[in-house]
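fyi for ur records
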Amino acid sequence: MKLKPRTNRVLIRPDVPVTETKSGLSIVEHRKPEQLGTVIGLGSEIRDLAIGDHVLFSWQSGQDIQMDDDGTRVIVMLEQDVLAIIGQGVEIEANDPILA
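which gave:
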């Protein structure tokens, strides 16, 4: 299946965190309060994002779509629902006194 987001929408491939148990069993976490993903498609009116940007978005945003039968999952959401672009902007340190 091919998808092209319209106007002010973006297509994101979510990162799915995998936790491995001591016995080697992989457990996939489906939902968290916040999500990370990679932009894989842009609508015609998108100006602040680019294909390949790693982004943070709310778990409540967008519409989940299951592509084909292979289980690939993508999310179509409004550009304004992207909370941040990872790797750009302000550097945040874990031991920053402002965050304490």
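The chain has a mean pLDDT of 84. thats all i got for now
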